[in-house]
Amino acid sequence: MVERLGILGGTFDPVHAGHVAAAAEVRAVVGLDRVLLVPAGDPWQKRGTVVASAALRAEMVTRACEGVDGVECSTVEIERVGPSVTADTLEALGGTDRELFLVLGADAAANMGTWRRLEDTRPLATVVVMERAGEHADPPGPNWRWRHVAVPRLDISSSELRARIAAGRPVDGLVPPAVVRFIKDRGLYTSS
Ligand code: ATP
Ligand code: MG
Questions:
Q1: Can you list the alpha helix ranges (DSSP code H) found in 104-155?
Q2: Using one digit for the tens of pLDDT, what is the confidence trace for 76-110?
Q3: What is the percent of the chain where pLDDT is above 70?
Q4: Is the full-model pTM beyond 0.85?
Q5: Which atom of ligand 1 is nearest to the CA of 22?
Q6: With CB atoms counted within 10 Å of each terminal CB, which end of the chain scores lower, N or C?
């Protein structure tokens, strides 16, 4: 049996309800067995702006996925040293018993031109672009397996959440309850 596996990478600094809702929607619409949320170990395009360590970001993702059918955390990128490169991740997660789907926000898809090993990425997965109302992204070149899925528009971003926490405002409902507790217990994001 071939497992249909979705891979949604990100910084997840912190993970939020928008990520979880989008992962669940893509899983349902594309008919995936599982969607893995994959926190980047070294998100080289965000160096200097990442706040929580890779281990803490993975712990938050694990908590966010608890009780969500078919959505799980993968630590494959944080166990690898060096910059997080999508082609490496797909190679690590792929196999003859798996069909891979690379799940990207429209903003992330529009940025693919900057990726390392971009051409190596193409044969490894079907790209699934999550489009929130009004968003769209085209493939970075010919011959990509490419599809679009409309996902619920939850206007939440990790950077806004960090600013909110630093200002002492609540993030309840924007972030899963177990993650809110984790952020409070560890005192994460309290200074901007
Ligand atoms: P930042 O504010 O730092 O950009 P972010 O909230 O966009 O953070 P990322 O970790 O960069 O979080 O996002 C990982 C993936 O999830 C990206 O592909 C991004 O497009 C997508 N994504 C981010 N926010 C949402 C959301 N509210 N709904 C659906 N997808 C989202
Ligand atoms: Mg973003």
A1: 106-110, 118-121
A2: 999 988 888 999 999 999 999 999 999 999 999 99
A3: 99
A4: yes
A5: 29
A6: N
CA 135 to mean position of chain CA atoms: 17
Ordered structural domains, the chain, with CATH: 3-185 (3.40.50.620)
Contact 84, 42 (CB under 8 A): yes
> What is the predicted pLDDT for the residue at 49?
77
Nearest ligand, measured from the Cα of 64: 1
Q: What is the mean pLDDT of residues 59-68?
A: 98
Q: Are 145 and 125 in contact (CB under 8 A)?
A: yes
Which residue has 């959505």 as its token pair?
71
How far is 4 from 110, CA to CA, in rounded Å?
24
DSSP assigned state of 137 = -
Q: Which residues line ligand 1 (CB under 6 A)?
A: 10-12, 18-19, 22, 104-105, 107-108, 130, 132, 151, 154, 156-159
pLDDT band at 134 (very low <50, low <70, confident <90, very high): confident
Q: pLDDT tens across 25-45, in order? A: 999 999 999 999 999 988 777
Q: Which atom of ligand 1 is nearest to the CA of 12?
A: 10
Residue nearest to atom 28 of ligand 1 (CA): 18
